[in-house]
Amino acid sequence: MKRFVSALSAIMLCACIAAQGICIGVVVPDEPEDGISKAAFKKLGTRLERLLTNQGAACVNSSNIVLFPVINIKNNNNCIIEGGMRNIYHVEFELTIKCVSMASNITFGTVTYDCAGDGYDKGEAVSNGFASINKKFGAFYADVKKKVEEYYTANKAALLAKARSLVQQQKYDEAMAILYEFPQGCEGYEEIQKELEGVFRSYQTKNCSQALQAAQSCFATQDYEGAAAILGMIDATSSCSADVVALQDKIRLKINQDKAEQKAEERADKDRAERMEKARLNAVTKVMTSYYNSRPRVTYHAVTVHHRW
């Protein structure tokens, strides 16, 4: 069984090599498969991260350069050994660790281990088999580091040119992806980061201008809540933040004004309803008075009744 781990469905562990190295992340599966548990793969990721740390790593941000494992189980029958109350699984497998660029899909190096482990289930047996991967890792890392540095140093100018071309086409997200590919620790990293910062500002300005225009359209149609929602999504550090604040103030003023007008209108409606009710009662009283005045007068005589006891 061979297993390829994609970055889209994996746990990304991170190890950023300090001044003497490059940033390398660790990608492991986030779902169990074929008896190998999620916990086992996470343990593998932690072990790889520790090996990188031993080379001078410090865990910081994610990286475009990653290590990912490919596992090939050799004894699919699992070789169950009867062991007292519980069965013991003995698993032999081949573990290949690849170092690749997720952006460019370039492989910088591989190292393969023949592993074996025992455990009360397949996942535990595989997990215990990871103990042997300490060997050869230092040489593998040194080789990978050299190849990564050589590749990105040689291609720095081409990456910058491609990113600038994308910026001219206003494809800011693609340009940022190109620049983000350049790993920390390689010569020229600071220059790339400065360029990336400029592209991000342009990206913010473009998005800010579009969002501001949409908010202004909502404001013009008196959709103040819609305008406020759009403005709330604009980055406070963007180039049009002053215009955003100004429009937010206008919206707040309009909403307050509308509330005041609504309250005044509600009071006016209430007063109008009270006047109409009073007028109705007065009219009813006049009609009834006129009606009773128009009827013939009736004289009622008082009669005293004497009861005999």
Task: Please explain how this structure is put together.
- This protein has a domain at about 5-150.
- With about 300 residues, the protein is α+β, with helices and mostly antiparallel strands.
- Helix content is about 50%, strand content about 20%.
- The chain is built from 7 helices and 7 strands.
- The longest helix has about 55 residues, at about 240-295.
- The radius of gyration is 39 Å and the shape is elongated.
- It has helices at about 40-55, 120-130, 135-170, 170-180, 190-220, 225-230, 240-295; strands at about 10-15, 25-30, 55-60, 65-75, 80-85, 85-100, 105-120.
Summarize, please.
The chain is α+β, with helices and mostly antiparallel strands and 309 residues long.
Rg value: 39 Å
Poorly predicted spans: 1-9, 15-19
Give the termini distance in whole angstroms.
Answer: 121 Å
Please state the overall shape, judged from the principal axes of the Cα atoms.
elongated
Which band does the percent of strand residues land in?
15-25%
Total beta strands: 7
Oligomerization state of this entry?
A: single chain
What is the arithmetic mean of pLDDT? 78
Category by helix and strand content: alpha+beta
Count of discrete alpha- or pi-helical segments spanning 4 or more residues? 7
Largest sheet: 7 strands, mixed
- The helical percent reads 40-55%
Topology pattern, helix = H, strand = E: EEHEEEEEHHHHHH
Question: What structural keywords apply?
Answer:
7 helices, 309 residues, disordered N terminus, single chain
